[in-house]
């Protein structure tokens, strides 16, 4: 039986084809706004789902706030994961915890049969970004973790979408399997990669995800492939004044490796990124360091390009060891892929995001935003009220600034689509105290509701339209043709549970 959702999608596709066919050069945003407006009157399943999201929202706004206060690091999100599991269980989901050797990983499931639609949730914080919900730098606890990437909103908003959609499916006898994936340690721990290796995505038809940001937009592909490793040099300790000739400095090797990378930087594509810290520089100036370590990330929009750069980085490390008569151990810690685009899913996600729309700030929120923007670099603050609008659908530009996510690996295995919602004040970027502050306010929570509604109605469209699921799979095959998924994380490696402390 074709439901209203399927009808909406079919009608949307047909309109798209007609408009494209006659060569209308409308900006995508205007096109979708017009379509969404014309469709919204018929979209009663969407209305019902949006209402359910709103009804359930107080519980999940509170959950986002509690997780924001917990601010737990990757693979140690015990309280955050338990809280979300409890809410999902109470809502009628079956929960399997501790999946893929990840103590805080879990899968919540409702329903049975096909299609299998999964919504991703994250809940890990970042080190050192503890911050009150205040417009100036005010750590709750100096040096402690904070939600500078807004994953408190990400995890709670995705759970809210799943719960509201489950209630809709139950009331309307919708067939299919809805899953919420509680995915730990997105920030450098690659929780999703180990879940893929454990086969947990094998039977999934479509994956949906979202991420906090300062605007509302569909992410059709993008993100940088990333490899990270610790380069540990071993030398010989000696008295740095009495007998330096007996020493072989591991710190010298670290510094020479850094110098080598700086010279290499000129000869790599300008959209690649290489960045590092000295994670161990020795114990005291009067002892020649017998161990020293460089912790490095390298990224590129293309994994193949990154592999070439990575091989050169390893050679530079080996060269530094040769020059200093030290030895080198390389431990690959993490790796994630770029995100594969899916045009079929992007079309429907864009229409739905347009239909849900943004939101406006209250006078109090405007006041908070203006105070917070004073801490941002001059010229970085957009003057529009970004949260109220939805950006047009754009093709990913590999030369635009971007970050990395283990959602990329999921997208190489399952048709995947995601979007960002305006949880941060315009001008604020993730991984800052300003983002952590926003993630604890009503601005973050309003953005979270935009995300929950868009996720829930998009998942409902997938349950209603087998054709949409088929189109998503066909586009996935087209986008990944001639390539094979791989991860640079060595085979057999277990999730690095204490990677933040290593
Ligand atoms: Zn992040
Ligand atoms: Zn993030």
Task: Write a structural description.
The chain is α/β, with parallel strands linked by helices and 502 residues long. The chain is 42% helix and 16% strand. The chain has 14 helices and 11 strands. Strand 3, helix 5 and strand 4 form a beta-alpha-beta unit. Helix 3 packs antiparallel against helix 5 (151-171) and helix 9 (343-356) crosses helix 13 (442-464). The longest helix is centred in the first third of the chain and has 27 residues, at 44-70. The protein is globular, with a radius of gyration of 24 Å. The termini are far apart. Mean pLDDT is 92; it is low at 1-42. Bound molecules: zinc ion (ZN) (2 copies). The site of one zinc ion (ZN) has 5 residues, from loops.
Helix fraction bin: 40-55%
- From the N-terminal CA to the C-terminal CA, the straight-line distance is 54 Å
Strands, total number: 11
Global Rg: 24 Å
Low-confidence stretches are 1-42
Biggest pleated-sheet summary: 7 strands, mixed
Strand order of the largest sheet: 1-2-4-3-5-11-6
> Bound small molecules, which ones?
zinc ion
Tally the helices: what do you get?
14
> Which structural class do the helices and strands define?
alpha/beta
**3D shape:** globular
N to C succession of SSEs: HHHHEEEHEHEEEHEEHEHHHEHHH
What is the beta-strand fraction? 15-25%
User: What average pLDDT do the residues reach?
Assistant: 92
């Amino acid at each position: 039986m074709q439901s209203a959702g399927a009808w909406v999608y079919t009608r949307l596709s047909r309109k798209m084809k007609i408009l494209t066919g006659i060569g209308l050069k409308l900006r995508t945003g205007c096109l979708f706004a017009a379509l969404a407006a014309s469709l919204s009157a018929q979209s009663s399943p969407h209305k019902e789902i949006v209402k359910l999201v709103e009804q359930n929202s107080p519980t999940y706004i509170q959950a986002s706030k509690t997780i924001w206060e917990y601010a737990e690091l990757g693979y140690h999100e015990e309280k955050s994961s338990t809280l979300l599991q409890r809410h999902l269980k109470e809502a009628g989901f079956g929960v399997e915890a501790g999946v893929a050797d990840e103590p805080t990983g879990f899968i919540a499931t409702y329903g049975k049969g096909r299609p299998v639609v999964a919504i991703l949730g994250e809940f890990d914080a970042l080190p050192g970004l503890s911050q009150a919900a205040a417009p100036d730098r005010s750590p709750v606890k100096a040096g402690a973790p904070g939600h500078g990437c807004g994953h408190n909103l990400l995890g709670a908003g995705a759970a809210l979408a799943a719960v509201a959609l489950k209630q809709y499916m139950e009331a309307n006898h919708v067939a299919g399997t809805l899953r919420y994936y509680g995915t730990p340690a997105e920030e450098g721990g690659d929780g999703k990669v180990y879940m893929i290796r454990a086969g947990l995505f094998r039977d999934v038809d479509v994956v949906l995800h979202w991420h906090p940001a300062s605007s509302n937009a569909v992410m059709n592909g993008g993100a940088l492939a990333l490899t990270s490793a610790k380069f540990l040099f071993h030398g010989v300790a000696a008295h740095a004044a009495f007998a330096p000739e007996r020493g072989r400095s591991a710190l010298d090797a670290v510094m020479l490796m850094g110098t080598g990378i700086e010279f290499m930087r000129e000869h790599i594509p300008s959209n690649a990124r290489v960045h590092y810290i000295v994670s161990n520089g020795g114990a005291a100036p009067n002892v020649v360091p017998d161990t020293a370590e460089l912790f490095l990330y390298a990224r590129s929009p293309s994994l193949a390009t990154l592999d070439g750069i990575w091989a050169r980085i390893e050679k530079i490390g080996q060269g530094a060891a040769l020059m200093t008569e030290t030895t080198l151990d390389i431990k690959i810690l993490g790796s994630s892929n770029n995100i594969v685009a899916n045009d079929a899913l992007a079309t429907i996600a864009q229409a739905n995001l347009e239909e849900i729309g943004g939101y406006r700030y209250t006078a109090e929120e405007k006041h908070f935003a203006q105070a917070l923007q004073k801490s941002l670099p001059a010229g970085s603050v957009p003057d529009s009220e970004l949260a109220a609008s939805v950006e047009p659908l754009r093709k990913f530009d590999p030369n635009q600034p971007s970050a990395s996510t283990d959602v990329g690996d999921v997208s190489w295995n399952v048709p995947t689509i995601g979007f960002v919602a305006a949880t941060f004040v315009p001008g604020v970027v993730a991984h800052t105290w300003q983002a952590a502050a926003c993630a604890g306010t009503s601005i973050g929570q309003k953005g979270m509701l935009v995300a929950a509604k868009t996720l829930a109605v998009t998942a409902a469209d997938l349950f209603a339209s087998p054709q949409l699921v088929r189109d998503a799979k066909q586009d996935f095959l087209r986008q990944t043709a001639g390539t094979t998924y791989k991860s640079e994380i060595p085979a057999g490696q277990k999730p690095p549970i204490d990677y933040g402390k290593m």
